[in-house]
Amino acid sequence: MIPPIKQELIRLFTGALKKTLAEPQPQGLEGLVESSFEIPREPKFGEISSTIVLRLAKELRRPPRPLAEALLAQLNELLGRSALKERVSKIAVEGPGFINFYYSTKEIAAVVLRIEKEGGNYGRPKLKPKKILLEFVSANPTGPLTVAHGRQAALGDSLALILKFCGHKVTKEYYNNDEGVQINWLGRSIRSRYLTEIGVPSEFPEDGYKGEYIRDMAKALVLRDGKALRDKPEDFFSGYGKEFILEGIQKDLKDFGVEFDHYFSQASLMRSGKVEEALGFLKQKGFVYEKDGAVWFESTRLGDDKDRVLIKSDKTTTYLLPDIAYHKDKLGRGYDFLIDILGPDHHGYIQRLKAAVEALGYPRERLEILIAQLVTLFEGEKMLRMSTRAGEFVTLREILDAVGKDAGRFFFLMRKFDAHLDFDLSLAKSQTPENPVFYIQYAHARIESVRKLHREKGLAVDWDKTGCLELLTQPAEAELLRLLIQFEEAVLAAERTLEPYRLVPYLQEAASAFHKFYAENRVVTEEASLTQARMMLLLGTQQVIRTGLELLGVSAPTKM
Predict the structure, then answer these.
(1) CATH number of this structure's domain 436-551
(2) Nearest partner of 138 among 98, 171, 173, 181, judged by Cα
(3) Does residue 264 contact residue 175 with C-beta atoms inside 8 Å?
(4) Which of 31, 171, 222, 406 maximizes the CB count within 10 A of its CB?
(5) How does pLDDT run across 176-213, given as a tens digit for each residue?
(6) How far is CA 284 from CA 281, 288, 289, 292, in A?
(7) pLDDT in tens, 218-260
(8) Per residue in 269-326, pLDDT tens?
(9) What's the number of CA atoms in the CB half-sphere (13 Å) around residue 437?
């Protein structure tokens, strides 16, 4: 197998830095080098670029350009004595101090051989594996999943796929908030609708859930049991409602391609004694005090903007106390890293939960909280606020029914998670090049049709005939090859930032480059060597597009 060039460059770069920098040298130099590599925005700046000089110059109080030129001299000296000299055509200092690497033509073309050998493993980085607990969606079982939950589901599940691809052990968990005031109101709401359905006058609770789904559940009870439940207590209806709704949530998620490894019950947490245990631990560590009849967490000592109430003066707990106990339980299960994906109304939770993690005796960096911003739905130019069923927000099920799983997931990932998302239903349903997911999937299917034509002509790709790759000199071919090389960097960027979006523009660019190549060139030609080279290029492109789509939880069809 051809060794990944990036690993060789890291070693070369680290050695050159050690010779360039005076003692003492920064800790973890190789890691600094690796994290500094990125894909240049424009092809004219090479295949990979390092920003490390710009970082170190500030720390060392040295002008960046002379430091970069000194480093370049060491790099060129080491390159001349390294096997990399056949794979790197040039190293250059450009701009204020970027170090840019230009690969040889042979190295660029050889990427298709790596893809053929590694298949679906191509682009998989070699990272130190972590044990990660990823919690997302975690909607209260008081109603169907909304479009906002859909964005969280797409983000969380795709992130899990990327982290697993990068070698991490990931557990997907749903925190089921199945007790408390909101569950009580659910029971009251269903009971009131049920009594009305069987002809017993009932005043609907002022703070009840008014959605049509409540009436649907009440009608289902009437069909099943008639009037036999008229004297049942409120908690019977609460239990029925939360189980019924959770089943619906699980079905919607499964149809959306999302299945959890574990559903964690808040009710079981409260019964376990772990909430009292967490409170006792915080008291022991001196982070709890009483004031105005309430129990407070002194989170300001750990970076929060104000202290937080754990137990109110009426002796009821706030949401924060069981959340602290839940995170204590998570960390106690031996995970290296916790990721919580929360909705846009949870910004205030970031500092208080990180403070809690630190108060529990763990580094606050063990917890990362991602806030998935709001989604606005459009039908062309028209903004949609509510569904046709009055009293309910647009549901994930409605999105699935309208555009399907693939378009739904892809469109939810089309912006960074911390940016507001405009979701155009008309565009997501269309089968035109303007629809990005259709455009990418069509590239994959189109390559399959070329592959079929190639086979029908009795031809086969001979992967031992690598000399033909030198024929890939057209600009459109070079662009495709450049993008194939950059796939691992796109995956690494998604893993490093916990942002699946990083793969979206990459796949769009790869699909666009393929369609441009296809429009300008015949693949199956009378020239056997050129046909061979172009088929190798297309098969490599197809594999990368397929892997990229799979990491987003989107299918890669062979026919469209």
Answers:
(1) 1.10.730.10
(2) 173
(3) yes
(4) 406
(5) 999 999 999 999 999 999 999 999 999 999 889 988 99
(6) 5, 8, 11, 21
(7) 999 999 999 999 999 999 999 999 999 999 999 999 999 999 9
(8) 999 999 999 999 999 999 999 999 999 999 999 999 999 999 999 999 999 999 999 9
(9) 26
Task: Give the integer Cα–Cα distance in Å for 470 and 240.
Answer: 68
Per-residue pLDDT, averaged over 83-96, amounts to: 92
Q: Where do you find CATH 1.10.730.10 in the chain?
A: 436-551
- What is the CB neighbour count within 10 angstroms for residue 160? 24
- Angle at which helix 487-497 crosses helix 475-485, to 10 degrees, equals 40
Non-local (6+) Cβ contacts of 111 within 8 A are: 481, 484, 485, 540
For the record, the structure tokens of 160 come out as 């899990």
Quote the CA–CA distance of 470 and 530 in Å, as a whole number: 9
374: left (phi over 0), alpha (psi -120 to 50) or beta: beta
3-state secondary structure at position 37: strand
* Closest to 547 in 3D by CA, of 451, 431, 444: 444
Q: Where in the chain is the domain with CATH 3.30.1360.70?
A: 5-103
Contact 5, 87 (CB under 8 A): yes
Cα 381 to Cα 366: distance, rounded to the nearest angstrom: 43
The residue assigned the tokens 């040889």 is: 104
Torsion of CA 31, 36, 40, 45, to 10 degrees: -100
Question: Across-strand partners of 59?
Answer: none
**CA–CA distance, 548 with 544 (Å, rounded to integer):** 6
Give percent above pLDDT 90 in the chain.
82
Pick from 33-47, 263-277, 416-430: least confident: 33-47
Rounded Cα distance between 377 and 364, Å, is 36
- What is the Cα–Cα distance from 66 to 11, expressed in whole angstroms? 22
Distance CA 452, CA 334 (A): 49
Q: Which amino acid is at 449?
A: S
Q: Look up the pTM and report it.
A: 0.92
CA distance 60 to 63: 9
Q: Is 444 exposed, middle or buried (0-12, 13-18, 19+ CB in 10 A)?
A: buried
Indicate the pairing of strand 48-50 with strand 37-38.
antiparallel
In the DSSP assignment, the letter for residue 3 is P
- CA 49, 54, 60, 66: dihedral to nearest 10 degrees? 80
Measured between alpha carbons, how far is residue 39 from residues 262, 304, 484, 511 in Å? 37, 37, 12, 18
Determine phi and psi for 376, rounding to 5 degrees. -115, 130
Q: Does domain 5-103 have CATH number 3.30.70.3550?
A: no
Distance of CA 242 to the CA centre of its chain: 28
Quick one: CA dihedral 251, 253, 256, 258, positive or negative? negative
Edge-to-edge strands of the sheet including 288-291? 288-291, 294-297, 308-311
Q: Tokens 């298709």 belong to which residue?
A: 112
Owner of token pair 């002796």: 315
